[in-house]
Amino acid sequence: MTTIAYDHRPLGWLRHSLVLARRSLAKTTRSPGVIMNGVVTPALFLVLFLYLFGGSVAGSTGAYLRYLFPGILVMSAGLAGLVSTGTAINLDLKSGVTDRFRSLPISRLAPLLGSVLADLVRYLVGVAILFGLGALLGFRAQGGFLAVLEACGLAVLFGFCLSWVTVFVGVLVKDANAVLAISFVSFLPLQLGTSLAAPVGTLPGWLHAWTGVNPITYAMDACRGLLNGTAAGGAVVTTLIWCAALFVVFCPLAVRAYGRQQ
After folding, report:
1. Measured in Å, how far apart are the chain's first and last C-alpha atoms?
2. Considering the entire predicted model, what is its pTM?
3. pLDDT tens string for the chain (262 positions)?
4. Do residues 171 and 251 touch, judged by C-beta distance below 8 A?
5. Which DSSP string corresponds to 50-95?
């Protein structure tokens, strides 16, 4: 019987993760529906909210676009992680692909990290398309080019850390449809129960209280401050703390649950 030795070379886990990320991206090219969800859905929310609420919330679509766009940016970066990552990992578990991975001398983390790293590429594509659409609608960042990079980096980092929650769910739950249902049900209160469409001060008391503990509210406020050239320091720090907390808690939980599948 042949024994396959584990690769102990430095950063071997990272090389394996990058190879599996490339595999995930190749799958995306054959199933463009995944990236369409991550790109088209935020674009639809941007256009619909802009023309539905622009006049009543901000008095004009131009003023409302400056308020709405940063929130849609965070939604775009987080949507792929919430909806696609856990489902893709669950399908790999059910189809036997994961059994093949386990027979290879690769890190236990690599299949999970590879899937999340592929999502980073999807986030960047989604963010680039969203900025193109925003420019066509008249959005101009007031904070300058560096602030745009900071806002994009913060949104992508938050999406990366948030995606580990659905990775954990994708490993635990037995059925891909259940993973998708949990992700969608979570999407509504997390993404819409925020300062996305209107200032939190105008919301009912119970919803205002929810936005105060919803980490996505802070990510949206941070990107809004950066892109519009207003104060964002407190929201940026709070978002970074949430990013660290999500990653530190859910990444080890997901890897441990994945290991127990053996």
Report:
1. 20
2. 0.82
3. 444 555 566 567 788 888 888 887 777 666 666 666 667 788 888 999 999 988 888 888 989 999 999 999 998 877 666 666 777 777 777 777 777 777 777 777 788 888 788 877 877 888 888 899 999 999 998 888 999 999 999 998 998 888 888 888 888 887 777 877 887 777 778 888 888 888 888 888 899 999 989 999 999 999 999 999 887 778 999 999 999 999 999 989 988 888 776 5
4. no
5. HHHHIIIIISSHHHHHHHHHHHHHHHHHHHHIIIIIHHHHHHHHHH
